[in-house]
Specification:
This protein has 247 residues and is an alpha+beta fold. The chain has a single domain, classed as Alpha-Beta Complex (Creatine Amidinohydrolase). It has helices at residues 7-28, 37-51, 117-136, 143-156, and strands spanning 54-55, 68-71, 74-76, 90-99, 102-111, 160-161, 167-169, 176-180, 197-200, 203-205, 211-213, 220-222, 228-230, 233-238, 241-244.
Length: 247
């Protein structure tokens, strides 16, 4: 069953979403060749502490970082460490926070200096697919309409959607029902209605959709080692319209 949120609960999540956007913007300003991913992690926790929120990821199922940082062929769940960003990289930054018992989640993929045309298009298509998914988040549609919007946008542009990881409901828990695939399956899912709040997160690859998890137990990479992009917003359905809470 999909938990529905009250207007007051959505307002609290939007408050958290505004903070999360500020944290993401601070990190965006630090992304440049030579910075180590652990420096971005440290900057994120400093910002969270200043805003009075906590990381939703630290310790979640044993995850060791405060945020996820995934570079090039890394799809999701990259662990911050010594690796330094290089000119031409793309870096996915995924952040979740908790404020007064409510969670919000967002991700963005950034270029590091000048990047290839393929990587630039990959980022642009990922963002476009998220926009299309949000347009499909409206009363009367089925959950599968969101999935179709992502898959259609991505595949018509020559890329593929990851199938091993999906979006999710969010609210009083980081992960709530339903799961939100970025591809159409046999299950159309529930009908969409006011009060639903979803973390919609296209993960798309330049090559094939297959991924594998590295020996650290967290970092998912493309099987063909082609680049991947990840974008995400927490979005609520309010008065018949999608409202982006992390914007």
């Amino acid at each position: 069953m999909v938990p529905l949120k009250t207007c007051q609960e959505i307002d609290k999540m939007q408050e958290a979403g505004h903070i999360l956007k500020e944290v993401m913007q601070e990190l965006a300003g630090l992304i440049q060749p030579g910075i180590a991913s652990r420096q971005l992690d440290a900057a994120s926790i400093a910002a969270m502490t200043r805003f009075g929120v906590r990381s939703a990821f630290k310790g979640y199922r044993g995850y060791p970082g405060n945020i996820c940082i995934s570079v090039n062929e890394e799809v999701v769940h990259g662990i911050p460490g010594k690796r330094k960003l290089e000119e031409g990289d793309i870096v996915g930054v995924d952040i979740g926070i908790e404020l007064d018992g409510f969670f919000v989640d967002m991700a963005e993929t950034f270029p590091v200096g000048r990047i290839s045309a393929e990587k630039q298009k990959l980022i642009e298509v990922a963002r476009a697919s998220l926009d299309e998914a949000i347009k499909a988040f409206k009363p009367g549609n089925m959950l599968s309409d969101i999935s179709f919007a992502v898959q259609h946008c991505v595949e018509t542009n020559g890329f593929s959607v990851v199938r091993d990881f999906v979006g999710h409901g969010i609210g009083r828990e980081l992960h709530e029902e339903p799961q939100i695939p970025n591809f159409v399956s046999k299950d159309k899912g529930p009908m969409l209605k006011d009060g639903m709040v979803f973390a919609i997160e296209p993960m798309i690859n330049a090559g094939g959709w297959e991924v594998e998890v590295l020996k650290d137990g967290w970092t998912a990479v493309t099987k063909d080692r082609r680049p991947s992009a990840h974008v995400e917003h927490t979005v609520a359905l309010v008065n018949g319209a999608a409202k982006i809470l992390t914007q």
